[in-house]
From TrEMBL:
PANTHER family (alphabetical): NICKEL ABC TRANSPORTER, ATP-BINDING PROTEIN (PTHR43297:SF13), OLIGOPEPTIDE TRANSPORT ATP-BINDING PROTEIN APPD (PTHR43297)
UniProt organism field: Paenibacillus sp. SYP-B3998
UniProt keywords, alphabetically: ATP-binding, Cell membrane, Ion transport, Membrane, Nickel, Nickel transport, Nucleotide-binding, Translocase, Transport
GO cellular component, one term: plasma membrane
Cell location: Cell membrane
Family, per entry: Belongs to the ABC transporter superfamily.
GO biological process terms held by the UniProt record: peptide transport
InterPro entries attached to this UniProt entry: AAA+_ATPase, ABC_Ni/Peptide_Import, ABC_transporter-like_ATP-bd, Oligopep_ABC_C, P-loop_NTPase
Chief subcellular location: membrane
EC numbers, comma separated: 7.2.2.11
Name of the protein in its database record: Nickel import system ATP-binding protein NikD
Lineage, top ranks: Bacteria, Bacillati, Bacillota, Bacilli, Bacillales
Length: 323
């Protein structure tokens, strides 16, 4: 099956007067048509910067793509003109942004904000745009009579449904969802995730699902990539990574999750803090926090090892290496 998205050796820096922040460092990812990939990592790992790179919305200045390729259906988006990027966003690739509470214009009626997407991209009449918006709103569980309401009249869960509607209006081939359930309570979160799974199947979309929640990714995605300090450190199917994690960082993440069957007075935690992107360590970026580091880890950056289930660790093929 063909790749709808392929990222090769992507490097993104934020350049300020004082520092160069190396936010993304050699990311390689593939998403096939109809597949969903979860991108997991701590805050500051580079997940959102990777997503913004795909839709060419890195704030410039201070951000810049300094190396790599982003291929959408075989075309390198980095070479796009701004006109081509505007046409791509919404039509080919759509994004659900992080915070549903602030992503909508507070002084525009919700229906008008949605209709504007169709009028801009599909060049349809206002009447036709309204009809299409109403149909899709009802598909995601928002009644037609809410068309003229303002964002402040919607709950968090309903705002998230509106944003999903906005992302789906032009039938994108690739949907990027950046922590779409972060601000929602658990019950609403489950409803939104189930809705997204149904819509992905209905519209035959590929999806990049960004989250820091391993449980949410397990429910939503086919494959998962673990990100640390701007690098992909492990990637494989959800089953492979969840049942047999190879990288010490991934193993630490799973050990940090509370388990009902375990009676522990204190939760496990990975020692130290994530590497500072303004002064990344030599060698493996994770080595200052790794209990099993060797001399090679402090001086030489590891390469991805494995065939389908890949891990960026000098010792990832050795079963005895554990966190």
């Amino acid at each position: 099956m063909e790749n709808i998205l392929e990222i090769k050796n992507l490097h993104v820096h934020y350049v300020t007067e004082d520092n160069v922040i190396k936010a993304v460092n050699g990311v390689n990812l593939e998403i096939k048509k109809g597949d969903s990939l979860g991108l997991v990592g701590e805050t500051g790992a580079g997940k959102t910067t990777t997503a913004l790179s795909i839709i060419q919305l890195i704030p410039d200045p201070p951000g810049m793509i300094v190396d790599g390729e982003i291929l959408y259906k075989g075309k390198n988006l980095i070479h796009n003109t701004e006109k081509e990027n505007k046409q791509l966003r919404g039509n080919g690739i759509s994004m659900i942004f992080q915070d549903s509470m602030t992503a909508l214009n507070p002084i525009m009626r919700v229906g008008d904000q949605l209709a504007e997407v169709l009028i801009t991209h599909k060049k349809v009449s206002k009447h036709e745009a309204r009809n299409q918006v109403v149909d899709l709103l009802e598909t995601v569980g928002v009644k037609a009579d809410r068309y003229n309401d303002y964002p402040h009249q919607f709950s968090g869960g309903m705002k998230q449904r509106v944003l999903i509607t906005m992302a789906l209006l032009c039938n994108p081939a690739l949907l990027i969802a950046d922590e779409p359930t972060t601000a929602l309570d658990v019950t609403i979160q489950a409803q939104v995730l189930e809705l997204m799974k149904q819509l992905r199947k209905q519209y035959d979309m590929s999806m990049l699902f960004i989250s820091h929640d391993l449980g949410v990714v397990a429910e939503t995605c086919d494959r998962v990539a673990i990100m640390y300090a701007g690098e992909i450190v492990e990637i494989g199917t959800v089953e492979e990574v969840y049942t047999a994690p190879k990288h010490p960082y991934t193993r630490g993440l799973f050990q940090s999750i509370p388990k009902l069957e375990e009676d522990r007075a204190k939760l496990f935690q990975i020692e130290g803090s994530m590497a500072n992107p303004a002064s990344l360590p030599e060698g493996c970026f994770f080595h200052p926090r790794c209990k099993h580091k060797a001399d090679i880890c402090e001086s030489i950056s590891p390469t991805m090892q494995g065939e389908r289930h890949l891990s960026k660790c000098h010792f990832s093929l050795l079963d005895e290496v554990k966190v």
